[in-house]
Amino acid sequence: MAKQSKTSKDVVPGSVSWLTEPWRGVDRLFEDFLDRRFPAFPSLLAREGRMGFLSPNVDIKEDDKTITVSAELPGLDPDDVEVTLRDGVLTLKGEKKLEDEKSEDNYRVTERRYGSFQRSFQLPDTVDEEKVTASFDKGVLTIELPKRAEAARAAKKIKIGTKGGK
After folding, report:
1. What is residue 56's predicted lDDT score, i.e. its pLDDT?
2. Which residues make beta-bridge pairs with 142?
3. Average pLDDT in the 35-63 region?
């Protein structure tokens, strides 16, 4: 069987998203219910837009020459994050460690979250893996994935004829 080429539309956050997508609405309803009943406490479920369970929010944008992945990682330093690219899969890993605070204060509520995360994205074949760069600024990790030169060529329009040659 011939290997199928991946396109930029194949950049998918997670290989089983089609399984979890129907449950996101249910999760949101349940979390909203808990938030209304117990507003002083953080929700037990991860919500999009929060760093719940430390799954960072990610933006992916594309132009003719580059795919850019930006991940929000508030409270992390570059040393807390690892970016790898293997067999066309971009993986972001990180850990936010609990800081050992010596304080006499008694916390009533703590909403800061600690733990590790990992997110992976299947990349299209057009990415030039040798030229990938990453930068970290103000809690945002930005990964630039340049496309190979041959991938940036303009599309060729194909004339459509009829069976009779007219």
Report:
1. 86
2. 70, 135
3. 63
| Residue 95, φ and ψ in degrees, nearest 5 | -145, 135
Per the domain annotation, does 20 fall within a domain? yes
Report how far residue 8's alpha carbon sits from residue 120's, in angstroms, rounded to the nearest whole number.
15
Range of the domain at 73: 8-98+113-149
pLDDT at 107: 64
160 is a domain residue: no
CATH number for the domain including 31? 2.60.40.790
Domain count of the chain?
1
Please check whether residue 156 lies inside any domain of the structure. no
* % the chain with pLDDT above 90: 36
- What is the full DSSP assignment across 133-162? EEEEETTEEEEEEEBPGGGGSPPPPPPP--
